[in-house]
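Cross-check.
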Amino acid sequence: MLAEQDDAEAVYVADALVLRGARVVWFDTAWFPARADMTVRLTKNGWRGEIACPDDAILLDDVLAVYYRQSQPFSFPETLSEPERRFASVEARFGFGGLFMSLPTRWVSHPARLADAEYRPLQMATAARCGFRVPASIITNRPDDARGFARSGPGVVYKATMHKLISEDAQVKLIYTTPVTSDEIDDRVATTLHLFQTNVRKSHDVRVVATGDGQVHGIAIRTDDPSGRQDFRVAYDSLTYEVTDVPRDVAGACRAYLRALRLELGVFDFAATDDGAWWFLECGPGSQWAWLEDETGAPIANSIADTLLGAAV
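Predicted model, tokenized:
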């Protein structure tokens, strides 16, 4: 488990693996170097050795699969200067990253594939090619083109192309999906790229977790809060959850998407409309799903454990 030790998704998957009789070991990058150390040697078959962790040791020869979540910052001594800290961080990142990615193991999912799949424009183009319904969209830094796009349809929203968090006044803030009108789009658009998209008038959201071996789990997310219906992250207290069937064409497109980007896991978000259409919004390969299993009992962790172990479906 290449994850923070209290990461909810990783804990769910670890528990499912243990029930299947698998030996599970953790490596939280925040442990290094204060609570973990390593020596490995290069052989004709690759790197051999061990990583010593607080409660266990990872023998590289024994690693058959890796469940990868977001890495945490390394814990370097406070005595390091800022240049020394930057150097140490880069060396540790490339050292551990190169080591883990050199192992002939099954990944859910491989870090290089995850890095590519984070780009929203790539997600959208892949989704369109795989047969999803994708809202009309434009990426531009031309204010006139942005205003023209806003006037051309029934309403548009602004979305960040990748980073959804910003730091302002020493506070971390989320960037939500935001409806805009042509009158609200000003010349500041010229300063960087902006993504505008037709605002789908949805009845509810659906989050689908799909694995590379073909399993799919759909959870309908509903709210009566108008702002929450626009972006459910602003109204968690008002949300209700229900397991829902995934239409065959949507499930097939999810599988095609994972094959196209060489992923073993995808967390897809859809806007479901009153006419039964499911509109693709994004696929976050590292997005959260544990709270949905907790709320509904959907066996998502079991599916991921099957994928890690190569179990037949």
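The mean pLDDT is 91. Residues 137-198 form one domain. Passed to J.P. for a second look.
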